[in-house]
């Protein structure tokens, strides 16, 4: 764990307060395991680091982790890497998989059954990005830790 703060108690943009990584084997239990890791990580951020973690942030983090790991489980062979970091006032969720194809959210269609995961992630995340890697890709989403204006 690394820690650095400026005068207002926030980290500088490129330094994280808390960081964990998990290798998930891609079997049927990996989605539930990823959600469990995300909840435990946010508990640690709140309890050990005394960071404000709203119920909304907790729920959205678990939702985003679930959707991203589910997509990886469905479309990419092999292991999944999950990294969770606290940067400033956000939780950053990064999922790596070995598939080189860049995902794209489909056009909104309320009649479509399934395949809404990426739409959901993009709708709830403050920031979303996909980065191609030498092997596979990294998908990163950021969620605000505390509720503020515009958050329910």
TrEMBL record:
The keyword Secreted does not apply. Signal peptide: none annotated. GO terms for molecular function: ATP binding; protein serine/threonine kinase activity. Keywords: ATP-binding, Kinase, Nucleotide-binding, Serine/threonine-protein kinase, Transferase. Pfam families: HATPase_c_2. CDD domains: HATPase_RsbW-like. Residues 49-142 form the Histidine kinase/HSP90-like ATPase domain. InterPro entries: Anti-sigma-factor_SerPK, HATPase_C_sf, HATPase_dom. This is ATP-binding protein. It comes from Streptomyces cahuitamycinicus.
């Amino acid at each position: 764990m690394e820690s650095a703060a400026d005068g207002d108690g926030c980290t500088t943009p490129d330094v994280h307060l808390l960081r964990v990584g998990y290798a998930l084997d891609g079997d049927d239990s990996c989605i539930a395991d990823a959600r469990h890791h995300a909840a435990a990580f946010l508990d640690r951020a709140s309890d050990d680091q005394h960071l404000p973690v709203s119920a909304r942030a907790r729920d959205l983090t678990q939702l985003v982790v679930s959707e991203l790991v589910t997509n990886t489980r469905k479309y990419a062979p092999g292991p999944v890497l999950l990294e969770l970091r606290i940067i400033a006032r956000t939780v950053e969720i990064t999922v790596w998989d070995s598939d080189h194809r860049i995902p794209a959210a489909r056009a909104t269609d309320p009649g479509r059954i399934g395949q809404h995961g990426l739409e959901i992630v993009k709708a709830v995340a403050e920031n979303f990005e996909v980065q191609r890697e030498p092997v596979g890709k990294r998908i990163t989403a950021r969620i605000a830790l505390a509720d503020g204006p515009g958050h329910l």
